[in-house]
Amino acid sequence: MTERDEGELLREVSAGGIVFCPGGKGEAGPRVLMIKDAYGRWTFPKGQVESGETPEAAALREIKEETGVGGSIEADLGPVRYFYTSPGGLVSKTVHYYLVKSDGREPAPQLSEVEDARWVEVEDALEMNGYENNERVLRRAIEIIRGGGGTEAARG
User: Which of 3, 6, 85, 156 lies at 20 to 30 Å from 106 by C-alpha?
Assistant: First the structure.
């Protein structure tokens, strides 16, 4: 959702998720789903919150649209805020991130939106992360994943 405030600053609200797969017998440890965006950077699926949509619903919709992977929200990882310049002017963007437990599907990236999507081990996600402003939510997600997954107490 994009809105213009009185000072001509555009405000944009998006939502996305750090999707994890816990790993089972004979598998590596927990993995997270990363996408390669249009700028060639590894990050996490996200997109704009549509009118009348909750950030949680938008996050699950965007994850599914961009990667083909479904899941359920385990925890609220908090927002990431930043500014960028668009043809319409300066944009203040807020992205609400959630920890999402995967439905177990293999990613099938929608190539019109992302260049690639893949499962990576959590340590590799820290190294691959292409945006410094995502590091806080990624570290929080890893902490929850390693602690046995998200809980209601971890929300917020």
Answer: 156
The CA angle 60-64-103, to the nearest 5 degrees, is: 80
CB contact burial 109-122 (16+ within 10 A = b; e otherwise): beeebbeebbbbeb
Task: State the architecture of 2-150 in CATH terms.
Answer: Alpha-Beta Complex (3.90)
3-state class (DSSP) for residue 24 = coil
Has residue 2 got a pLDDT over 90? no
At residue 23 the predicted structure's pLDDT band, cuts being 50, 70 and 90, is: confident
Structural tokens at position 8: 């001509």
What is the rounded distance in angstroms from the CA atom of residue 81 to the CA atom of residue 104?
A: 30
pLDDT at 153 over 80: no
Q: Which two tokens stand for residue 129?
A: 């992360």
pLDDT at 155: 40
Domain ranges for the chain: 2-150
d(CA 72, CA 119): 17
Do 55 and 61 form a contact (C-beta atoms < 8 A)? no
| Residues 118-141, mean pLDDT to the nearest whole number | 95
**Residue 26 CB-density burial (10 A; 0-12 exposed, 13-18 middle, 19+ buried):** exposed
